[in-house]
Amino acid sequence: MSLENILTDWSRYRKGLEQGGFHDYEHMWGMVIDLDKCTGCGACVVACYAENNLAVVGKDRFADGHAMHWLRIERYWDEPDLGEGRVAEYQHHGASFLPMHCQQCNAATCEPVCPVAATYHTPDGLNAQVYNRCIGSRYCSNNCPYRLRYFNFFSYYESSWPAPLHMQLNPDLTVRDKGVMEKCTFCVQRIRAAKDKAQMEDRKLTDGEFQPACVQTCPTSAMTFGDILDLHNPGKGVENTRAAALWRKHEVELGKTRQTKQDPDLRGYRIFEGLNTDPKVLFLERVREV
Amino acid sequence: MSLDKMKRREFLKVLGWGGVGTTLAGCDMPTTVTVQEGEEEVVAYLAPEEYVIPGIGVWYATTCAQCGSGCGVHGRVREGRVLKLEGNPDSQVNRGKLCQAGQASLQAHYNPDRITAPRVRRNGQLETIGWDQALALLEEKVGPSSGLAGERFAWVTDTVSGHQAVLLKAWMEAVGSRHHYVHEAVNDAVWRAVCRDMLGDENPRLRIDKARVILSFGADFLSTWGSTVQNSARYAEFRTAPRGVLVQAEPKMTVTGANADLWVPVRPGAEGVLALAIANRLAAEHGRDLSKLPADVQQQVRAYDIDKAARITGVSAEHIARIAALLNERAPSLVLAGTPAEGHARGYDNVAAAMLLNIVLGNVGKTLESGAGFPFPQLAAKTGGNRELLDFAAALESKSFDVVFFKGANPVYTAPEALKLKEKLAGVPFKVAFTQFEDETAQQADLVLPLRSMLEDWGTHVPTAQPEQMLISLQQPLMEPLYPETRGFGDALLALLKLRKAPQYAAYDDYYAYLRNAFAALPATLKQGAISDQQFWTRAVQKGVIEVGAGSGSLTARVAAFTVAEPADQGRPYTLVPSAGANLHDGRYANLPWLQELPDPISKVVWDSWAEMHPITAAKIGAKTGDRVRIESDHGAIEAKVYIYKGMHPDAIAVPLGQGHEAYGRYAQGRGVNPLKILGLATETKTGELAHHATRVQVTRIADKVGDKLVKLGGSEAQLGRKLVATVTADVYARTEGEA
Amino acid sequence: MSDQIKDINEDIRWAKINEDVLRSMENPRMGYWISVVVCLGLLSLAVGAEIYQYKTGIGVANLNWPQMWGLYIATFIFWIGMSHSGTLLSAILHITHADWRKPIYRFAEAMTTFTLMTAGLFPIIHLGRLWNMYWVLPYYSDRGIWPNFRSPLVWDAFAISTYLTSSALFLYIGSIPDLAICRDNARGWRKKLYTLLSLGWRGDDRQWRHFRKAYLVMACFLIPLAVSVHSIVSSDFAMSIMPGWHVTTFPPYFVAGALYSGCAGIITLFVLLRYYFRFEDYMTLAILDKTCKLTFAIAMVWTYLNLIEFSSVWYGHDMVAKELLISKFTGPYSPYFWAMLFFGSVVPFAMAFEKIRRSIRAMFIVSILLNIGMWLERWMIVAPTLSMSYEPFAFDVSWPSWVQWFIVLGSFGWFGLLFLIFVKIIPSVSMYEVKEMVFHRRHLAHKAIAEVMHQRTGDAKPVGGAGLEGAKP
To answer: Which top CATH class is C14-429?
Structure first.
């Protein structure tokens, strides 16, 4: 009965708000990206296109800002500051590359604003997007400080996959039609498949059993993916994954807007942490010789 | 076994469901792609094929054939379609990783612009014919009945290796021709020549992982130079504590340069002087002993103290001193030199000067290891450069050939306009192109033979850069060919061979049978306890690689004679840097939409060409980012939009390779410009390679075309005080994660 | 006419009021038809653009990453803002006993209803999949799927639908006595229509008493509703975390802006109705003068709230918000931003001068300028934040395509069309209230009666002293 439904949902939901989200997370998928290893090559981006049926929009639509890359590599030129307002004549420190895909925030700002709850938090700690439910108000994208949500401004299934290119489409997930928001899912279809497999074999998921396409392909292994659930309780929950170990090593904790580290020089940081979005992608600072 | 038998390999069945497996969610209008009656064949699952489980993807090992690196891949096959490629962890070349081109090879396979049947030129037009007719034509033109002497045949290919190289060589021997031109527009030919002369090994193994400091003169080893996925894994190792320092000196910032700890802009062509100045500093300041070097080399080193070198190279004396200090402090180091150093009249000498540093610093044998000892030299990768292109053109000039075969290479696109290759090719009576796509070269051909994609064909590959455990990588078809009227290259070679040398190859129905036989003939030591040839074969197919043991051999360190020249800078005011990127490489990936849509790592431009310049240069020209400029050499002019940043030497104008195709399908055609077209024909003195970084150009701002935009990703080029890419100093890193 | 001092001529005959108003509802003149054609033309532009956008995808509006919202949302807020006019005049001025509102409140109420009907279209037009728009409503579903009650867009859906229903009801209830007059004077289908609509109004005492109560209750209900509607619309922005949107003062700022543009809209329509229907006797310069004073006061409140926003950002420590503010003043949108400040804060000073307040022509221009300013304000809320916020790599400036402009223009056509239909169906001046006003003004001269009237019906307090001398009960 729907009324019952709304009442139970309401109290659960009220509780959730007070207590800060789920308390019975099954997993909490997170990532670590070592910016000192990332070379900005872009292999991850293409892997994402291949895995997730991302539309190729072409030059004109790219120019119009309709590109659909869930993962983009930002490139910043940081003028080496010589002090006294002078900047160097050359880019002696190279470029700054930043791979950005959905940060899967635990306190995602995109979630509360969706009028139809098409984006919500899963017990896996993922920020899920339900394409079928999306009505395309685009509020989520406007409220994402990272600007990591991409909207299907057009239908691309004809223009992007002329036959026989469509045969490459991954049947494990959909091709999104116009009017739907989409974003990085941490390759949720792979998570799903691995979980099903583990369940069939009556065992727990193990670290490294699957990886998102970007992590898998990264030529320098700059990305590490894993369950970071045991971040605060070593020994509890799932086995300590490499990703969780890195989170702990860099003394970055979830649920904080400012980290209190024993050693403030540790490289781990989260982007726009101060906005209390509680992102689950940990970046390791780029190292520079001075 | 025949082709028909191959079709019976159950797991390769195409079920003909095409797009049906993929629903379109998030749309209530058309919900599924429907199978239209008569258009597609629907095969019921009532009698399932053994290896096809609906909904379950199975991974098969094969080898990526996009470049010569020979990365092992796993391809996911579901319902008879290959969907996704990933690196094969069993291959020590790429250790489970893959670059963008490898990922995008799916699109070469499923490309809508593939040639689906042989075509022959009749009355100036290419007309579709059947393979029978094509083979008959080949017999007439190429077979013994043609009566042509062997020297009248030539092949132009890209890097070839494995059993295809063997068959190709066998054919050459059968007809008695020596003319196999291996042409790679983006290459390291000069580096290889220097390695051969100074280390005694053309292809030494670069132990980037072992180095504590790398000095690279424009060698873009993370993106275009050498075996990049292998290099990247080693680079990751290099960046792990204790962290190595990367110094890059080049006229245009490459991806490797963008990742450097210290990037210095070098005046184009002055790399050799810079290397000598560093040697000078090493001797003068750090007491390195140069006395064992040849006298003329010592003299050259003495000639360039850092202040003089600073004036010539544009690199400040402090930077030269610091580089020298770094190299002195941290051992072992590794000095590399890439295309920007090579592509000058005295490119060899530039690279030799860089190699001198390796010798002075004692890197030979430490970070430069011998790559020799591959037990099957006949299978080894045959690589080449631009000299082969020039030689080929020269041979065409003297009307040396009656029949030319093309495979992989696209010389009509990569040759400078001044070479007039297209005109010269017109003089060849019969040109055959083995290709998947109608590229510029195929358009000139008289017979175009459609090849299978790398995901439909059998093959073996030997990596151009062998890992410590040397290997042969096996390529197997992952699905039924999309187009029945295509052939594998191996099959085509066998067919050609049978025309000439029937008895020896008559036993093989197809290339698959030939490979099986070749594998059976491999020495027992490689079979690692397999009880039968069948078992060995099955294991090899499953694993995708056969390890053939560690190489043997050592390098010698001998300083070859060289004389570094200072850049002359004559003629027009700027030097054109035709820069290669990993996305489009030399233009061969321009027909892959994923790679066209992947922003260039440096400029973030997509689907187009652009011209990179330093703000100082831009100010002189009066151009802003997005303005249109005309870049004019003695041999032609190109136009592109400007991208301005501080990763350029002010004397250099960089235009990326890869665009400007006149053919090559809908994604490549008519986009941007091809800077190779306006290159001069000056050559490198010692190797005869094209001096591709020595073309001087004039740059002028011209009026914009209406509606023509520089399409690039990204708004702000600076972080504006936000903590996005944060940095720590190496000292802090050494303390926190130092000797982990 | 410029010497009109009184709000209304108390000597006007009641029959003349009926005649004048009913005349406005008959025999459309050429000007009317031209207006209809213009409105239909604008509307068809929008319909064409919308069909194109629906078929092709919302990308044709040149919305993009990161500029996901554009003129649609800005114009949505603009029309919602306009809707505050009716509530202000009918409800607020009603319970504050400002009886000068009486001749002009009817069309203001109609404006409320029609602007809401216009505004409500925009969130639908702007949806990527507008055919699923009903998903934002909490309808019964066995699947147990509900909208997300945390989302301000759902609050919008509630607020706007409630406001639209209430204001339509308010408009209708207030018109019943007039509809009865229409019924009594109409023939043919009109007679049937008004018979139906007037709900058997006979004007007896009991009916009047119930009517008064219902009207007052509705008025009291509408005031908090109106304030909350625009507060909720403001929370579309204020509830986000984006710089320039995440502003605590947004609810009052939006309400002030809404009242402001509503008043300006009333002035525009005031001038038009007065001109077309020769309503000089009812829509007097004195009333215009009062409306202008009110508008001026609200303009100053709006300006003040602007200054508060600027200074709180300026003295705050949010670097990103400050960057955005500076960009508004100097960046790509600065011409529009300065135009907004000019039209919104400088132009209203024209209304400080009585001469201008009482000039029909001047006020027509001024009121339109004010509304251009207010429309720009809404656009300057939406666009700059999207063009530059936290992620520098996502900075981008883009301009609306013709599709957006057509639909925005079409919305004016749609509103105009609704209004043109309204003036021919429902009396655009409240006859019974004008009569009431005339009656009260007449009797205001008689102190004792005025006192009684004041106590009984809440008319203006009798003013003692000069001007009333000689009046004998």
So the answer is: mainly alpha
